[in-house]
Design a protein that fits this description.
Layout lengths: L1 H22 L8 H7 E12 L5 E10 L8 E3 L5 H11 L4 E8 L16 E6 L2 E7 L4 E7 L11 H13 L17 E5 L4 E7 L8 E6 L4 E6 L4 E4 L1 H4 L7 E5 L8 E5 L3 E7 L5 E9 L6 E6 L6 E6 L5 E5 L7 E5 L20 E3 L8 E6 L2 E5 L1 E3 L2 E2 L3 E2 L10 E6 L8 E6 L4 E5 L5 E3 L7 H4 L4 E7 L8 E6 L5 E5 L5 E3 L18 E7 L8 E6 L3 E5 L9 E6 L9 E7 L2 E8 L6 E5 L3 E7 L7 E7 L4 E4 L3
Parallel strand pairs: 3-7, 38-44
Antiparallel strand pairs: 1-2, 1-4, 4-5, 5-6, 6-7, 8-37, 9-10, 10-11, 11-12, 13-14, 14-15, 15-16, 17-18, 18-19, 19-20, 21-22, 22-23, 23-26, 24-25, 27-28, 28-29, 29-30, 31-32, 32-33, 33-34, 35-36, 36-37, 38-41, 39-40, 39-42, 42-43
Helix pairs in contact: 1-3
């Protein structure tokens, strides 16, 4: 019986900690901006560990607002409800934890009781949870409650809240959004597609910034381009003479003529479709059989001069495919790194996923990260096209079943994180530096409990055009989700962009095969393209409301460095985050609501860091990145 009671208490405590997140809704009248403004004192603390007598000591690290007290706040639990004390103790445990402590008389615009003045309070944020304290004598604070309502103000990590507070205190016009502030126009069905669709991506075929939509399909790839006269997407596949049937594909200038070519794997062999001067495509050379199959393809620069190769993902060691002797008639295929003696390092990691190619350690050299169901293998870049032997990434995984992973800088710190939409659940692997990742979805806002299992993929984008990286999640059995970023890795559900809630594209409720966000009509706002489970291709154009959207786009040209290249944007002292830029298929996109200056920073391998300030005026501005 004693064990049963202990287990019951543990379950009850876990439920107490979980219920706050499950009930959180964003409160527009008491955001972190209101909280900081109404606080007399904001302290960064170190709290813990929990003593043998249950006492918890605090140390003042810094006074973020107000004057630091001579003594750190003391915490009294003598009159506190036992479940609240146990929850507090459990979050701290045997280690020292980072915390933020706000004290003041807080007056939300909608007070609980008419005419009632709220009392002074202390609000402590600890490991994603809020605790309310009431003042006692001599700087001691009495624990009152685990305050789930405060997650309506901020639902996220304590480290992220610390950065948000710094931003609020230093920015002349801080913003912490409470809604997406974006809408779709009436959806349009574009086509009915045959075969199994593997992916949907945007591609800048002409190098002029106008994006086309590329659909990868077993029954034949399709290219759709915006027709200005008809104000609709039109199928130009036959016009381009593209006859690829892709299970995996990527774009790059493989023959060095300044035009994007297509590398396509049809399930058996890899073929290059070269882009001619007249805009058409033709298969070139002999197809290369990939006996171990191919889970995904990614273009990568093989040297600082821009020679382009391919990373081909397999169930074990990735392959590096390169044109031989400067031509494209013969493709040389080898391992990304020499296989080590004995078993492959990832042999016990379960199902392999496509490799992610990006600079994950911040040294300007592309790395390769391959997720698996039960882990991940990291190949650190030493120079363009050269890698260290694979190393296991501690803790990183996707879970079993189908999964799709993509990169984005969700906390805007200049390091690329990884989001996983998977059959088991969604995961957000936060890059803590040097390619060390921590799973942080439970402390990332509404996305923690609104995102669902049965994800198949998605992408980072900025559909509401506010400069923060948002998340699109695609599912196998329900409508997609869009989550807007409040800043610092705290996401809200973009209700205005939710197809299900707004009764748009009813068939999307049955699931999708692929989708992407991109500016397909050239108005400066990102649109949504979806391939449904039934094969229908739909597009939802962003409603610009009659006002031209503003953005700064940064792109790599075909014919130069093939990337990937990390590009970071800045608005004054505020970092807008980093984008993984590849010629033709992935730009940096920084949306803004008002004209003004923005700064770009980037560094090519082996070159000095570069910085450029640009002025966004009355229309989107596109900047070409060069060494």
């Amino acid at each position: 019986m004693r064990m049963s009671l202990r287990r019951l208490a543990t379950v009850a405590l876990a439920a107490l900690l979980a219920c706050s997140t499950a009930q959180a809704l964003i409160r527009p009248d008491f955001t972190p901006i209101h909280l900081v403004q109404q606080s007399d004192l904001v302290l960064a603390l170190k709290v813990g560990p929990v003593g043998a007598d249950g006492a918890v000591k605090a140390e003042v690290v810094k006074a973020l607002k107000g004057k630091a007290p001579q003594q750190a706040p003391g915490f009294d639990f003598s009159k506190s409800p036992k479940p609240q004390v146990e929850a507090f103790h459990q979050l701290i445990g045997p280690a020292t934890q980072e915390a933020l402590f706000f004290t003041g008389t807080f007056r939300p615009e909608a007070p609980d009781g008419a005419g009632r003045e709220p009392a002074a309070a202390g609000l402590l944020h600890l490991r994603g949870r809020w605790f309310r304290f009431v003042g006692a004598a001599a700087g001691v604070w009495l624990l009152d409650a685990l305050d789930s309502e405060m997650e309506q103000t901020w639902a996220g990590g304590t480290d992220m809240l610390r950065r948000a507070v710094d931003y609020i205190l230093t920015d002349p016009a801080p913003s912490v959004p409470v809604k997406s502030m974006a809408n779709w126009l009436e959806p349009r069905q574009v086509a009915k597609l045959d075969g199994k669709v593997r992916a949907a991506m945007s591609v800048d075929l002409a190098g002029d910034g106008r994006l086309a939509l590329h659909i990868l399909s077993d029954a034949g790839d399709r290219i759709f381009r915006w027709d200005k006269a008809k104000k609709a997407l039109g199928d130009v596949t036959a016009e381009l003479k593209l006859a690829a049937k892709s299970r995996a594909a990527t774009w790059g200038d493989f023959d060095g003529d300044g035009r994007l070519d297509l590398a396509s794997f049809d399930g058996k062999a890899l073929t290059l479709w070269l882009h001619a001067a007249d805009g058409t495509f033709a298969a070139k050379g002999s197809a290369v059989e990939l006996k171990d199959g191919c889970l995904g393809l990614a273009a990568i620069s093989l040297d600082e001069m821009g020679r382009v190769g391919l990373v081909a993902s397999t169930a074990s060691y990735p392959l590096l495919v390169a044109p031989q002797d400067g031509g494209v008639d013969v493709l040389k295929t080898g391992f990304l790194v020499p296989p080590a003696a004995g078993k492959f390092i990832g042999s016990n990691l379960g199902a392999a996923r496509p490799c992610l190619v990006a600079d994950f350690d911040g040294d300007s050299i592309p790395d390769v990260l391959q997720p698996f169901a039960k882990g991940a293998v990291f190949y650190r870049g030493k120079a363009p096209g050269t890698f260290e032997g694979g190393a296991l990434v501690k803790g990183f995984s996707t879970g079993e079943g189908q999964a799709g992973a993509f990169v984005g800088d969700f906390d805007a710190d200049g390091l690329l994180d990884v989001f996983v939409a998977a059959e088991e659940r969604c995961l957000l692997w936060h890059n803590r530096g040097d390619a060390k990742f921590e799973e942080t979805l439970p402390v990332s806002g509404e996305i923690a409990y609104i995102s669902k299992p049965d994800g198949i993929g998605g992408m980072a984008a900025d559909p509401n055009g506010d400069g923060r990286q948002d998340v699109l999640i695609l599912y196998s059995n329900r409508s997609p989700h869009v989550f807007f970023n409040r800043g610092f890795r705290s996401f809200g559900h973009a209700h205005e962009l939710d197809l299900d809630e707004n009764r748009l594209i009813e068939a999307a409720q049955e699931g999708q095969q692929a989708g992407c966000l991109a500016d397909l009509d050239g108005d400066g706002a990102q649109d949504l393209a979806l391939v449904l489970k039934n094969g229908e291709l739909w597009v939802c154009l962003r409603d610009a409301g009659g006002v031209p959207p503003l953005a700064l786009r940064a792109a790599l040209p075909a014919g130069g460095y093939a990337g990937p290249l990390t590009v970071t944007g800045w608005a004054d002292r505020r970092c807008l985050g980093a984008w993984n830029v590849v010629p033709g298929t992935a730009e940096a996109f920084f949306g803004v609501f008002e004209p003004g200056p923005l700064k770009l920073r980037w560094q090519f391998p082996g070159k000095d860091p570069q910085e450029k300030q640009l002025i966004v005026e009355d229309k989107p501005l596109r900047f070409i990145l060069k060494p």
